[in-house]
Amino acid sequence: MSLEFVEKLTKWLVSRQTLMLLEDEDIPMAEDDGPDPTPIVFPPTFHVQGAFPVSAVEASHHPLDASIEVSPAEMQWVGVNGRCNKVADTCYSYWVGGSLGILNKVYLQDFNGIRRYLLEKSQHMIGGFGKLPGDLPDILHSYLGLANLAVMREPDLKSIDPTLCISISAREDFEQSMAAEKAEGVVHNSNGA
Q: What is the pLDDT of residues 79-93, one digit of tens each?
């Protein structure tokens, strides 16, 4: 992968962070025809879709400070989507966060905002995570919500390998098992037999 590709991919992944948390929500957006507002150098916390810049200090140094108004209350929760102008979806927190983890750029996520979105908006009171705030939990969104919390190093969760989307300990167990089978001469072929 070229450095230019990685930079463009990173920029796109980081821009998936959004304040659009509900399907009927409308957030202030920069004009589609204008220049790309995403900076080349990423600040510590970063939101493109209706939430850039993230503080009054940054706002005073950013060219879009007059075009996007976001209250501190709105900045509490940050969801992640897969396409522009789409509502946040719990599983995309992992697809984006895990991808940033693979690129060793996980620090570009808004940890606090995404964590609060997952735990306060998409986590269901009976346990697990739903696709959207208020949705019943399902196994896919529950696993991927927890997986991104692990990517972000949530203290009570095991460390995760973002490439495989399994815990580091599970990966190590698998590697040891495969090494033991190889030493014993066990052969696995690709057709499943």
A: 888 887 788 899 999
Structure tokens given for 187? 């052969």
**HSE, side-chain direction, 13 A CA sphere, residue 157:** 17
Count of CA atoms in the C-beta half-sphere (13 A) of 193: 1
**Quick one: tokens of 92?**
């995309």
Based on its alpha-carbon atoms, the radius of gyration of the chain, rounded to whole angstroms, reads 19
Taking the model in full, what pTM does it have? Answer: 0.70
Mean pLDDT, the chain, whole residue set: 77
User: Under a CB-based contact definition with an 8 Å cutoff, are residues 99 and 162 in contact?
Assistant: yes
Chain-centroid distance, C-alpha 132: 14
Q: With b meaning 16 or more CB within 10 Å and e meaning fewer, what string describes 127-155? A: ebbbbbbeeebeeebbebbbbbbbbbebe
Closest to 102 (Cα-Cα) out of 172, 8, 13: 13
How far is 27 from 91, CA to CA, in rounded Å? Answer: 21
Cβ pair 147, 165 in contact under 8 A: yes
What is the number of helices (H) and of strands (E) in the chain? 6, 4
Which residue blocks in 74-135 are alpha helix, DSSP H?
Answer: 90-102, 111-116
